[in-house]
Amino acid sequence: MEESIKTPRHVAVIMDGNGRWAKKNGVSRLTGHNQGMLAMKEIIKKADVMGIKYLTVYAFSTENWKRSQEEVGGIFNLLVKFVGSELAELDENNVKVHILGDYHEKVPAAAVASIDKALETTYDNDGLQFNIALNYGSRAEITRAAERLCRKVEEGIIKAGDVTEELLSRELFTGDENGNIPDPDLIIRTSGEERLSNFLLWQAAYSEFAFTQTLWPDFTPEEFEDIVKEFSSRGRRFGGRN
Ligand code: FPP
């Protein structure tokens, strides 16, 4: 009998290669990011159709502030454009938008307003959860979690000896009062780079990885499906023997 295909619950994506795609096609970096946004829209739809419960994308890292003002502003304008054109459809499809990162800090006001609207509109949805990592860096996330736990100790809410992995994980951006977002089963990185770049360091403890040479704007729903199917055929043991 054919073994049933196990769909991952949580797929995370490092959308890399917009700049190289732009160079290759003789267009501006911002045009590359715009093509990247179009690719992202298609992957959200595909993940939803495939029954994936959580899709996380690395949209803007804490290191991305080092880029030119023009590029940074352009990426946030794309976010505003994305919410403006897609929010109604996301909501209709029962998609819940969620942010990983301190997006109130440094992010332009128009983008914050768009995000707040997307969060509010989709708050009660219980279909695909679309997590956008924005102004996100994993070391800062873990440091912030440690600080939050220390404050709880200072305030006498917990004792230092009470700290467990579970307690710390609740203070991460993936922590949730209704239960944590499950760790990613699969992390995909495009453009041929094979590293995590400060993305989900804690949560990736047992994740499987898939790397493709495809530059993000060229990444198609078909390739996404192929990668997910290949993942589904892998055996995961989480450190155990069976
Ligand atoms: C990495 O490519 C991509 C980014 C830093 C930005 C990702 C942004 C999008 C896909 C735009 C849409 C997203 C939202 C949420 C609106 P790179 O610029 O590092 O590429 P390179 O390594 O080839 O230069």
Structure description:
- The protein has one domain (10-137, 184-231): Undecaprenyl pyrophosphate synthetase, CATH 3.40.1180.10.
- Helices cover 42% and strands 14% of the residues.
- The model has no long low-confidence stretch (mean pLDDT 95).
- By secondary structure, it is an alpha/beta fold.
- The protein has a six-stranded parallel sheet with strand order 3-4-2-1-5-6, sandwiched between helices.
- It is built from seven helices and six strands, in the order E-H-H-E-H-E-H-E-H-H-E-E-H.
- Strand 3 (96-100), helix 4 (109-122) and strand 4 (129-136) form a beta-alpha-beta unit.
- The structure holds farnesyl diphosphate (FPP).
- The site of farnesyl diphosphate (FPP) has 18 residues, from helix 1, helix 2 and helix 3.
What brief labels describe this structure?
242 residues, alpha/beta, Undecaprenyl pyrophosphate synthetase, six-stranded parallel sheet, 42% helix, binds farnesyl diphosphate
